[in-house]
Amino acid sequence: MLILAIDTALEACAAAALDTDAGELLAQEQLPMKRGHAEALMPMIARVMQSANLSFTALDRVAVTVGPGSFTGLRVGISAARGIALAAKRPAVGLTTLSAYAAAIVDRNGSAPVISAIDARHDHVYFQIVAGDGSQLVPPKVAPIDEAIAASQFGAPHLVGNAAKILADRWPTVMPQPVAVDAQGAPDIGWVAWLGAAADPDATPARPFYLRAPDAKPAAMPQLAVQAAT
To answer: What backbone torsions phi and psi does residue 215 show, to the nearest 5 degrees?
Structure first.
């Protein structure tokens, strides 16, 4: 199976081509960035596909991170994935950033629970907790930082994500201390590709996974527009 993976959800712009039959990434590129995903993504995808010596019609599916993350970044990646999938007549699948963060840790065959955490601002985090074997302990949710820490009642955890250090800095001394803290700005694009290969296209659509509404609110309709609408 040939997979094109895309990630623009957080603090990187990334793309990779995976050949599951060969068990290897044919090409990948991942650039740290907080803004500018829209300008960087399509040229990056073109370079990755050229380096992998693949045409878009050779792909079996397109995988993309769908959140939680930056609302602008998510729209960029998901729109690109849907467009490529539609043109190539292939399915597009969506993977959460929380699961992509956790996958790399679970693959190490550790026994510690894994807390994936993403900064949601305003003293909140998006988080998910899985056991060392990848089974879900706490489903994805958004909560105050202290509530996320309190939710870890499964032993000393492995913290991963762009909010891993935020949690570690607030971790109470009376609780079992984290076994490791991986403060990554974005998940490894290779794991986005592997998760995309394992995903069920019918159960994991490429659509935004927000967990909460955006901070920005639509502007109120001008009075004349309201009158015209009524």
So the answer is: -65, -40
What's the Cα-to-Cα distance from 222 to each of 51, 160, 165, 225, 230, rounded to whole Å?
51, 45, 44, 5, 13
pLDDT digits (tens, 9 = 90+) for 12-49: 999 999 999 999 999 999 999 999 999 999 999 999 99
CA angle, 97 then 75 then 137, to 5°: 20
Q: Are 128 and 164 in contact (CB under 8 A)?
A: no
Whether pLDDT at 165 is above 80: yes
Burial of residue 194 (CB within 10 Å: 0-12, 13-18, 19+) is buried
**Higher confidence at residue 110 or residue 182?**
182
Vertex 42, ends 32 and 182: CA angle to 5°? 25
To the question of pTM greater than 0.85 for the whole model, the response is yes
Structure tokens at 157: 């955890």
Buried b (16+ CB within 10 A) or exposed e, 161-185: bbbbebbbeebeeeeeebebbbebe
Q: How many whole angstroms separate alpha carbon 150 and alpha carbon 30?
A: 34
